[in-house]
Amino acid sequence: MSRIAYVNGRYLPMRDAKVHVEDRGYQFADAVYEVCEVRGGRLIDERRHLDRLKRSLSEMRIAMPVTVRALGVVLREVIARNRIGYGLVYLQIGRGVARRDPAFPLPAVAPSLVVTARSLNRTKNDALAEKGLAVVSVPDTRWGRVDIKTTGLLPNVLARQAAIEQGARDAWFVDKDGFVTEAASSNAWIVTANGKLVTRQADHAILRGITRMVTFEVVKAQGLAIEERAFTLDEAYAAREAFVTSATQIVMPVVSIDGRTIGSGKPGPLAGALRREFHRYTETG
Ligand code: PDD
After folding, report:
1. Is 149 noted as a catalytic residue in this protein?
2. Closest CA to 1 of 80, 77, 92
């Protein structure tokens, strides 16, 4: 079965799903995106993702191309047409097509909208969570507004590639003061040597993950506390547990950082519990 993508008003087979060469998303990464989990064919946490999308668009001063309601219909249609049971749906909105010039097009052009979806292997994801990830640290060389979910992901691309080339799975960004910001496509968490659950505060230096937000609720329901603060790489090396959160990985244990074993070297009990409980706190649409 050919995959189907939505491109500016049309559902097209992947091979015909094309954007213009002067699309500003292509030339300047002048675009924002969202990735939502699909589970049992249903969209997970649509409201929270679309709220963040609206914020990204407003920070970038890009107009919403369709209503939120219409966007919900398109997301569901792409999930259905691709018969996604378990997987992800990706949406991207760009400032549109115009002759190449960094300044906003004047008069404004229609923003572009692309939606794709793909299946993920749940068994494989769960097996990975049983094993845990090895990560490496890399300097955080990103711009100062990574709280906006733009498609400008070159440092993330290079970080992930560096991790793979070192035999690891993912990368953790470290700022110039030695504090971990987040992972290449997820938020970073540790359980410190004295048992405190810590994740960086959501300022302009990290993306305010939806999975991070829901994990806060899971943690609270367990009667545990979270320290929302920056933590150093050294604190992470000495942690009892480490994990990352994202829409596609949910709660994914980290078992080594820069070749140093974290805790017992096995996924930690808290990460496991949060992963098991997670979907009791999501909204399914
Ligand atoms: N990434 N930080 C970064 C840099 C991310 O790219 C992501 C998500 C997150 C976690 O956000 P959320 O919990 O809302 O998925 C944090 C998506 C999954 C991606 O780029 O594929």
Report:
1. yes
2. 80
CB neighbourhood size of 106 (10 A): 8
How far apart are the C-alpha atoms of 274 and 129, rounded to whole Å?
12
Give the SS3 label for residue 253: strand
> Residue 250 and residue 122: Cα distance in Å, rounded?
11
Decide: 210 in ligand 1 pocket, CB within 6 A: yes
Structure tokens at 69: 């309601």
User: 154 with 179: CB under 8 angstroms?
Assistant: no
Question: Strands 112-119, 4-7: parallel, antiparallel or unpaired by DSSP?
Answer: antiparallel
Q: How far apart are CA 92 and CA 70, in angstroms?
A: 15
Spatial distance between the Cα atoms of 39 and 161, rounded to a whole number of angstroms: 28
Contact 113, 91 (CB under 8 A): yes
Residue range 142-158: average pLDDT?
A: 98
pTM, whole model, 2 decimals? Answer: 0.97
Q: How far is the CA of 187 from the centre of ligand 1 (A)?
A: 7
Residues, the chain: 285
Decide whether any atom of ligand 1 lies within 6 Å of the 209 Cβ: yes
Query: Residue 51 to residues 58, 63, 158, 160: CA-CA distances in angstroms?
Result: 11, 14, 29, 27
pLDDT at residue 147 tops 90: yes
The preferred substitution site among 246, 252, 274, 281 for testing ligand 1, maximizing ligand atoms within 8 Å of CB, is 246
Q: What is the pLDDT of residues 238-278, one digit of tens each?
A: 999 999 999 999 999 999 999 999 999 999 999 999 999 99
Q: In whole angstroms, what separates CA 160 from the centre of its chain?
A: 13
The answer to whether the peptide bond before residue 155 is cis (omega within 30 degrees of 0) is: no
